[in-house]
Amino acid sequence: MSLLFDEYGLPFIVVRDQEQKQRLKGVDAVKSHILAARNVANILKSSLGPKGLDKIMVNSDGEVTVTNDGATILKMMDVRHQVAKLLVELSQSQDDEVGDGTTSVVVLAGALLEQAEALLDKGIHPVRIADGFSMAAEICCRHLETISDEVEVSSERKTALVEVAMTALGSKIVSRCHRQIATIAVDAVLAGIKMADLERKDVDFELIKVEGKVGGKMEETTLVKGVVVDKGFSHPQMSKELKNAKIAILTCPFEPPKPKTKNTLSIKSVEDYEKLHNYERKTFEDMIGHVKKSGANIVCCQWGFDDEANHMLLQSSLHAIRWVGGSEMELVAIASGGRIVPRFEELTREKLGSAGIIREIQFGTTKDSMIFIESCANSRAVTIFVRGGNKMIVEEGKRSIHDALCVTRNLVKDNRIVYGGGSAEISCAIKINAEADKIATLEQYAIRVFGDALESVPIALSENSGFPAITTLANVKTLQISTNNPHLGIDCLKRGTYDMKEQRVIETLIGKQQQIMLATQVVKMILKIDDVIANEI
Ligand code: ADP
């Protein structure tokens, strides 16, 4: 290090060590990337499966989140390393595409990288390894189709849907009442689809809202056939229940119009003041007049209104909800069959929404209240109302329900399933080993280790359940081969059978295929990076 001075005489330090530092390139770079990515994957390993552990994440504001969801853990981890960030994105894209399997996909990618490292040590070029992995992933996806089963998906027969949702919820905080919550998630998805949709294999997630309130027990989580708005009626003296509601859905405020440009209004006399006051009063009266004329008995307003307007609404026997969020306004409009109206003059009877009943419900001793809009004109909009002892549980409950909703939707899209507990992975590993022998090129090695990497899922599952991992895996694997039964996996919950078909541990085929494809893609990408050029400031 040496001290120099610039042309203004200001001192600066030259750090000579930097010159000797070398940027990692080639195989060394690949290896250091693998190390970084594996570290991230190892963190998630202990969270996999029904006996997986949760993690507490504390953000920079000291806010605490307890979760078991891979995507959430990684998102909150503040990963700095550029290659490790790829794994964060991997988990995120699995979440976006499939919604579940976010932990498994990262564990698999970590295991693939570990195997790739050993091959690099043997002197095999990263590109050959990447090619081998692609071939193996394709073999896997094809094999998964052959071991998959088809289930019937319809509103009458929802057992399979519930079972898939239950598997997704098995490792979450909600597992205590996972059958109930799985049924709620399935009912929510089925409520949102019309028969035509069932043929089109499409689910509109926008009609399903997940809302939570701290308090009560997880078992009190319910499916509301309508919309829940996290607000109370604007005036405490408005009655708490309104039947046969006709809703005016307004995006204009109950306020006298304000000029959009800056200007000053000077009031110099008492008459002027009274004129202004009367003008404001008249404006409110006109507004309320418009609402009354349309035949509405409740106003759902995106903006606020001042006390005067609030009082006048009460006097005119109108219910009102203010500060309703934009997306909630849309849901209210969809559910009630009403139109969102931007000006009072445009309010007409045809634009009103209708609901059988609107109730304000108060919770506990806190003055917290929520509004339930039920028996709506359009019964497809539903809300899952999550309860839980504290905010962390409610938030984790919401995340778990998102997973359950996603897997149910996936099954509506494609009704093929594979069995969980690592059984599908073990079966693929066996298949891959057999196929590897048939390939004469160097890729054979990569294909073979792909099988070993797949076994990391059952290994992690049995480790997390406190079993001797390798022995258990070896047992299950030999049993799969000797009985030719691809449904044998790790009996995490000690139910006395390895058969996941019997245990009803079910995952969707597209979810599993997506996991394998995505993990392979990211690993290939990491293997092909041999230099990092950063624009340091
Ligand atoms: P992810 O975020 O990847 O979904 P999870 O923690 O939900 O991770 O764990 C999913 C894994 O746990 C899957 O491999 C699934 O097959 C397995 N699993 C879930 N329930 C059971 C069970 N009852 N018995 C054995 N394995 C199970």
TrEMBL record:
Subcellular location: Cytoplasm
Ranges that cross the membrane: none
SUPFAM superfamilies: GroEL apical domain-like, GroEL equatorial domain-like, GroEL-intermediate domain like
Keyword Ribosomal protein: no
GO molecular function, one term: ATP hydrolysis activity
PROSITE patterns on file: TCP1_1, TCP1_2, TCP1_3
Alphabetically ordered keywords of this record: ATP-binding, Chaperone, Cytoplasm, Nucleotide-binding
InterPro entries the record matches: Chap_CCT_epsi, Chaperone_TCP-1, Chaperonin_TCP-1_CS, Cpn60/GroEL/TCP-1, GroEL-like_apical_dom_sf, GROEL-like_equatorial_sf, TCP-1-like_intermed_sf, TCP-1_chaperonin
Keyword Cytoplasm applies: yes
Primary localisation category: cytoplasm
Pfam families cross-referenced by the UniProt entry: Cpn60_TCP1
An example Gene Ontology CC term for this record: chaperonin-containing T-complex
UniProt xrefs under NCBIfam families: chap_CCT_epsi, thermosome_alpha, thermosome_beta
Family: Belongs to the TCP-1 chaperonin family.
Name of the protein in its database record: T-complex protein 1 subunit epsilon
